[in-house]
Protein 1
Amino acid sequence: MSELLDKIEYCIERGKVDKVSPYPPDLRGQDGSDELTKIALESGMNPADILESCNKGMLKIGEKFSRNEVFVPELLMAAKAMKAVMAHLKPYFQTGSVKAKGKFVIGTVAGDLHDIGKNLVSMVAEGSGWEVHDLGVDVKPVKFLDTIKNNPDCIVGLSALLTTTMENMAKTVQEIKKQYPGIRILVGGAPLTKDAAEKMGADGYAHDPQSAVEFLAKFNKAS
Amino acid sequence: MNLFTRKVKAEGNCYSVKSEIEKLILEKDEIISSLGYSTNSIDEHFGKMIDIAIDKFYSVAEIKAGYKIADFEKPEGAKDNILLEGHVFNVGKIVYSQLKKSEKAVIFVCTIGDKMEKWAKKELQNDAAFGFIIDTVASAAAEKAADMFHNFISDEMEKDDLNITNRYSPGYCNWSVAEQHKLFSILPANFCGISLNESALMNPIKSVSGIIGVGKEVTWNDYLCDTCLMKECIYRKKKQTELNKKEVTDDR
C-alpha cells in the first residue's frame, strides 16, 4: 500500500499528471497522479494519507526550485499533477474527512491587472494543500475585508507588479490590519523588497511561489 | 538588418514605422536562459513548447511602433525633472542624469499586439507551464522589438550626426509608472493601437513605451542597476543574461 503512496508522491514531484501525458519523458506511458489516486481510493486507502503523500511531493519539488535545480515550468507541472489528485479528493474535503492546511485569500491589489505571478502562487499553494480563495485582479481593499469577514481564519496574500500600485498595496495592508490586526499578510511582486514589505506592515515577503508556501507553513505553525 | 524599415509621417510631429516581422529573430537559447535554464538542462517537453510559441509568434504578432520628436527642456534648477511639450516629468535622479544633455527627446511606443497575451492567458487555464512559456516568449519578443526600434532611431539620428541615450520607461529606474499618462497625452490617442488604463497599464500588455534622449553630447550607457532597488527588473535580468553569455564565450 505504501508503495502506491510513494508512487503518487513521485508523480507529484515529477509533474506526471496521467498516462497519456508525455511529461516527464522517462515516465511516458506510465500511470500518473490521476490514475494512481483513483486506484488508491478504490482500494480503500485513507484520502488523508494520499493528501499527505502529495504534500511531500510538492515539498520536494519546492526544495529543488529553491536550490535552482528546477524552474517555474516544472513547478507548474507538479501543481497540475496535484490538481488531478485534488479532483478525486474533492468529495472528501466536502464531507470533512480530509482537511486543507488552511485558507489562503489572494488577489492583485487595486489598480493592477497583472495576474501571472498571482496565479503561479495560487496554483502552488493549492497544490501544497491550501484552500485558495483567488479574488482576481484589481481587488479593492473592501473586497479583501469582506472575504476576511467570511473567513476570519485565513491568511491573506497581496500581489502587485507596478511601482505605483505598491502604494495601493500599502493602503490595503493598513486597512486590513486596522480592522483585523490578527490577520497575517504575505506580499509579493516585482517592485517589492523585504524592506518595503516590512515598512508597509506586512508579515512576510515572498519573492517566488515556493517562498510563499514556506511562509504559509510558518504562519500556520505560529497560529 | 532591422525589423523596422522606414518611417511614415503620421499626424503632427509623429511618425509610425513600418516593420517586417521576419527580421525579428527570436533566439530559443535566450528564451531558455530567461526561464532560468542553461541550454542543455531544459527538458525536451518544455523545449518543444518554446518552439511552438516562437512559431506561432510569427503568424499572430502585429508589431507596431511609432514616435514623436519633442524639444528637450529642463525646468529652472532641475535636478530630477524634465519638460517636454509643456509637461513636467519627474523622471528621478537616475534617468535625469542620463538625459540632461539631450537637445531633443524621442517619445515612443512599440507593441507586438495582443494575440500572444490572449493565447497565454487561455493556456494558463489548461496547461499552466505552456501558458507561462508563451508569456515568456511574448515578453522577450516585445523587448527585442523595442531593441530594434531603438537601433532604428539610432540610425535615423546618425544621419544628422546626433547620438542617442538608452531608452527609459515610466516604472523603471525609480521613475513612477503613473507618468505614463503624461507621456501618452503627448502622443495621438490610441497611437499604434496602444491605450492606457487608469492604473497606467498599457493594452496590449506586451508593449514598451518611453523616452530616448537625442543630442551631440549624449551617450548610450550600460544599465544602471547598481543605483536601482528593483531586484526583479527585466533589465537587470537581461544584463545578467548578457554577462553569463559573455562568460561562456570568454571561457571557450
Protein 2
Amino acid sequence: MADKVMLKLENVCKTFNPGSVNEKSALKNIDLEVYEGDFITVIGGNGAGKSTLMNAICGTFPIDTGKIILNGDDITRLPEYKRAKYLGRVFQDPMLGTAPNMEIEENLALAYRRGKTRSLMPRITRKEREFYREQLSRLELGLENRLTVKVGLLSGGQRQSLTLLMATMKKPDLLLLDEHTAALDPRTATKVLELTEEITAENKLTTIMITHNMMDAIRCGNRLVMMQEGRIIYDVSGEEKKSLSVRELLEKFRESGGEINDRMVLS
Amino acid sequence: MFFDALPGAISLGLIWGIMAIGVFITYKVLDFPDLTVDGSICTGGAVCAVLMGLGVNAWWALIVAVIAGALAGLVTGIFHTLLGIPAILAGILTQLILWSVNLKIMGQANTPVDTRSTYVIITQLEAGWAILILFAFIAFIVGGLYWFFGTEFGCGIRATGNNPNMSRAQGINVSLDKIVALMISNALVALAGALLAQYQGFADINMGRGAIVIGLAAVIIGEAIVSRISINFAVQLSSAVIGAILYYIVYQFVIWLELDTEYLKMFSAIVVAIFLAIPYWKKTYFRNFIKKGKKPLIGGNADGGASGGAGETPEGAQNNG
C-alpha cells in the first residue's frame, strides 16, 4: 500500500445550532489521515457523526474549525459543487443520487462531465454512448439496452448501481459511500456491495464507506473506524482488522459507552 | 360573431403562449414557481412602449424589453440564491419592486403605442399577419430552447430542477443555473409583454396582474393535452402555446356568451387549482385501490417503482432538499 496521504482532516469541528437549546456538537476535533488506496469502513451508533463527517468532506456545510486537505490541496473553503470534481458520492436514499426525470444516458453524461465547465456543446456524443453501454453492461442489469429510459422508472437497486457507476466512471480522488446499501432489500444490498468492492478494487479507489452492518464493516476494506459522539474512538487496519469478530467489535463499542441496536447485530 | 373574433383570440393566445413558455421553464424545468412574471411582463410592455414613444424602432425596443426582462429574472435569482429567500417570496419581492419600476419607466399608469403612423411588428388591426409573425417567433424560440436544453449547460439546468442534491454532487453550480434559467424565462415573458403592447397599442401598469395564473393555466392545459402523445421536449414547450391559445379561445367564447368577464380571473384560478389537484387526487385514489387487495399492483409498484412511485418520490426528494 502506497503511503501517500489522499485525505487529511486536521482538528475538524462542527457544531449545529450553536448557542441555542438545540445545540449539537456533531464533530469534535476530528483528525484522520486516509492513505491512497485505503478502503475505510466507518461504523458507529445513530448520531455518532458518521454522515456529518462525510458531509463535511463534501462541503454540504462549512466546518467551524480545522482543515480538510485532499490530495495535497486545501479544500476547506471550496464550495460543494467545486469539490465534486474530486469526489464520488453515493447516498443512502436511492432517490438522491440520480435525476429521475432524465434519461439513463443523460444522467451518465452529467456524471461524466463532473468537474468540467459545462459548455454549449451537445450534452452527449455518439462515442460516449458506446462507452456508457459498455459500462452499463458490467452491472448486468440489462440497462445497456435502456439508455433512453427515464431513471425514475428504475428500482432502488438499479438506481443505486447506476449512482455507483456515475460516482466512479470518472475516477474520483475519494469515493464516499453513505450507507448506500441500507435502503435496499438484503439480496440487492449484497449485489450492490459486491459491485462496490469490484469497482473499487479494479480502479484502486480510495474509499470511505459508512455502514451499519458490522459484518460488512469487518469483511470489506483494509481499515475500520468507529465513531462515537463526534469522535473517532477506534481506528484499526491490516491484520488486526481482518481478525476482528463482530463480538469483539460490539465489545469495543460497549466499552466506549455506545448503545447497540438491532441493526448492527442483525442483517 | 364568435368566429370573427377567432383570429384575435388566436393571436392573443400566441402572445401569451410565449409567456407560457417562460413559465414552463421555471415551473416545469426548474421546479421554481416564479411569480416575477406578473411584473416582468409589464416591464417588457412598458420599456417597449416608452422607447417607441421616443421614436426607437419597434425591433430595437423589443430587444431592450427582452434585456429588461432578463434583468428582472436576475434580481429574483439573486434574492433566491445569494440571499437565500424562498422561491415564491423572492418572486413576490421582485414583483413589488417592478411595480414601482414600471410606473417610473412609463411615468404614468398607461402608455400608448402609436400603431397607425409608426411601424409595429404586430397589431390587432391585422390579426392575420400577427398570427403568421407570432408563429415565426414561437418556432424560433422553441427551436432555440430545444437546442439550449440539449447542451451540457442546459442539461445541467434540467438536472438542477430535477434533483439539486445530485446536481451539486455532480459538480453543477446550482445557483448559477437557477439564475440563468430565471433570466431566460423572464426575458421571454418580457418579450411577450412587449409584443402585447405593440399588438394592443398600449402598455398598462395592470397588464401583468394574474399573469402567472394564465401562464400556469396554459402550461397545465397544454400538458394535459400533449402528455399522452409525446414526451419530446420541443413538443412539451409547444404544448404551453397550445394551452394559451385554448385559454384565449375560451375567453373569447365567454365574451361571446356575454357572460361577465370580470369573473374570468376567478375562473382561471379555479381551473388551475383543479388541474393542480388532479395528480394529488389520483395518488390518494391509487393508494385506496391497493389497499383493497389488488396484489399485482403492489408487486409492480414496489419492485419497479414504475407508475406511482416514479411520479411521487422525486418530488418528495426535491421538497426535502
